[in-house]
């Protein structure tokens, strides 16, 4: 398990590196509230993901599935071992390391995580690697810039 530490209110904070993965499934019929993950590539410079909730059942379900694919569930796995850590629905907070503030996690944040960080996140844990919760929800942080800017020798 990869752990990173930093100072926060005189307490050491540990992180587990994690990734968001999508698992699709085949329902008999579409229902409102199902989630989909599509890739938008037309009319944009760089393709991006669009994670969205089905608000109402389309008239032509087959056409909808052909356009957007099967519904998905998003899970969190440990980056180094692929061990399951939980579901995207368990995330409740984003820890802003610069301001030392907890920001409420919104469903719309999923697209930001998928597109800006390719689904990579860090989850706050204790020294032994057990995930920590705030108000019964996981706390995540964005990957640090130095992780994104790996240099080659």
Number of domains: 1
- Stretches where pLDDT is under 50 for at least 5 consecutive residues are 1-10, 147-153
Count of DSSP H/I helices: 3
Structural class: mainly beta
Largest sheet: 9 strands, mixed
Secondary structure: number of strands: 11
Rg for CA atoms: 17 Å
Q: What string gives the helices and strands in order? A: EEEEHEEEEHEEEH
Write down the overall mean pLDDT.
87
- As a percent range, the share of helical residues equals 10-25%
Shape: elongated
Q: How far apart lie the N and C ends?
A: 25 Å
> What proportion strand?
35-45%
Describe the structure.
This protein is mostly beta strands and 153 residues long. The protein has one domain (3-148). Helices cover 13% and strands 43% of the residues. It contains 3 helices and 11 strands. The protein has helices spanning 61-68, 109-116, 145-148; strands spanning 3-8, 11-24, 35-40, 48-53, 72-78, 84-87, 91-96, 101-104, 120-125, 133-134, 137-141. The strands form 2 sheets. Strands 1, 2, 5, 6, 7, 8, 9, 10 and 11 form a 9-stranded mixed β-sheet that branches. A two-stranded antiparallel sheet has the order 3-4. Strand 10 (133-134) and strand 11 (137-141) form a beta hairpin. The radius of gyration is 17 Å and the shape is elongated. 17% of the residues are buried. Residues 1-10 and 147-153 have low confidence and may be disordered.
């Amino acid at each position: 398990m990869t752990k990173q530490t930093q100072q926060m209110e005189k307490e050491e904070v540990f992180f587990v590196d994690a990734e968001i993965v999508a698992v699709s499934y085949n329902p008999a019929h579409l229902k409102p509230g199902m989630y989909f993950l599509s890739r938008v590539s037309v009319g944009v410079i760089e393709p991006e993901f669009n994670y969205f909730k089905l608000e109402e059942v389309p008239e032509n379900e087959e056409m909808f599935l052909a356009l957007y694919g099967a519904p998905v569930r998003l899970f969190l796995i440990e980056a180094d071992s692929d061990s399951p850590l939980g579901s995207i629905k368990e995330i409740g907070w984003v820890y802003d390391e610069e301001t030392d503030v907890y920001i409420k996690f919104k469903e719309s944040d999923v697209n930001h995580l998928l597109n800006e960080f390719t689904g990579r996140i860090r989850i706050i844990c204790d020294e032994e690697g057990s995930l920590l919760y705030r108000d019964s929800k996981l706390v995540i942080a964005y990957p640090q810039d130095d992780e994104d800017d790996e240099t080659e020798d």
